[in-house]
Write a structure and sequence with these properties.
Blueprint: H1 2-21, H2 25-35, H3 40-64, H4 70-91, H5 100-120, H6 134-151, H7 155-166, H8 171-197, H9 204-227, H10 230-252, H11 257-319, H12 323-327
Helix pairs in contact: 1-2, 1-8, 1-9, 2-3, 3-8, 3-9, 4-6, 4-8, 5-7, 5-10, 5-11, 6-7, 7-8, 10-11
Subcellular location: Cell membrane; Membrane
Family: Belongs to the 4-toluene sulfonate uptake permease (TSUP) (TC 2.A.102) family.
Pfam family, one: TauE
Length: about 325
């Protein structure tokens, strides 16, 4: 019972992070299941079955808050579902340890780019005149879905940074669209695991606990992503990607505990400094905007007052009676 309650809490926290940042539900949940002794295939299968419910709730919540681009959902979700199905059916019993450090290195580079870009540079205007095309989204979806099924997580870490880096869609819609399209990925992966492992590959107790926690967190996460400024959101996402993949690389390389701890603590310090810098910059920008608006309002009022004064003077001149006319 204590394990199920813990899983529900993990599901809540994982969905809160996933719904707000577009990643981490699968990674967090699968990590805990492996820690309590589940084999990788059963852990990934159970998490994906739970994700059918959590991603549905998350997608509905994001849709209600206006965070979803349905064209992106279809263009990345369908290839993602194909990749997830292939990953679950073909590789459910195989180890993907050899591919993990390579992919972690790629994601680490993307995360570092996002962390620097969003921390030290304001977001460019979203170029909606150039929508994200299928030739870009399809490979991202296929790779993300494949890794998600084989590694118990990966849809968000692959899809979210790729879409953010494109600069063609708002960050909140990146997260909403990635979370919504994950519903298709979860269904396809679950079908693949059902074929590859049978019904015995799922632990329904784990599924129910993760599902309850995730569904409860989904509306709160969808609301939160609308409140976080894009610059701060990008900085947070970049830090998550860097930390997660640096940890994967260190573990794969079998680095010593002191080295691993030192590197991860260093990343946390840099991440905290970056987020602090982003917050201060946002506050400074808001103060500058408020002052500019106040100045514009004052200038407008003075101009209106001057115009009204000029009109009053003209009216007075028109109605004044000349002195000579009075004497006559």
């Amino acid at each position: 019972m204590q394990t199920l309650v813990l899983l529900a809490l993990v599901g809540f926290a994982a969905q809160l992070v996933d719904g707000a940042l577009g990643m981490a539900y699968g990674v967090t949940s699968t990590t805990l299941l492996l820690a309590i002794g589940a084999n990788p295939a059963s852990a990934s299968a159970s998490v994906h079955l739970a994700e059918i419910g959590t991603t549905l709730a998350s997608g509905i919540s994001h849709w209600r808050f206006g965070n979803v681009d349905w064209k992106v959902v279809l263009r990345i979700g369908v290839p993602g579902a194909i990749g997830a199905f292939l990953g679950a059916t073909v590789l459910s019993s195989l180890s993907t340890d050899a591919a993990k450090p390579i992919m972690a290195g790629i994601l680490l580079a993307i995360g570092a780019y996002l962390l620097v870009r969003f921390t030290f540079r304001s977001l460019p205007k979203v170029n909606t005149a150039k929508p994200l095309r299928l030739r870009f989204l399809a490979p991202v979806g296929l790779l993300g879905g494949f890794l998600d099924a084989t590694g118990g997580g990966g849809w968000g870490p692959v899809g979210t940074p790729a879409l953010l880096a494109s600069g063609r869609i708002e960050p909140r819609k990146v997260i909403g669209s990635i979370d919504t399209s994950e519903f298709l990925v979860a269904i396809a992966a679950s079908i693949g695991f059902l074929i590859g492992l049978g019904a015995g590959g799922f632990d329904l107790g784990w599924v129910l606990a993760l599902l309850i926690g995730g569904v409860l967190a989904a509306p709160l996460a969808a609301w939160l992503v609308r409140k976080l400024p894009p610059r701060l959101l990008g900085s947070l996402v970049g830090g998550v990607i860097v930390f997660t993949n640096a940890r994967t690389i260190l573990i794969t390389a079998e680095a010593s505990a002191p080295v691993t701890t030192g590197v991860l603590l260093g990343i946390l310090v840099i991440w905290a400094a970056a987020v602090t810098f982003a917050v201060r910059t946002l506050r400074a920008d808001r103060r500058a905007e408020a002052e500019a608006s106040a100045t514009a309002g004052t200038d407008g009022s003075e101009a209106d007052a001057a115009t009204d004064g000029a009109r009053s003077s003209e009216a007075a001149a028109d109605t004044a009676v000349p002195a000579g006319a009075e004497r006559r």
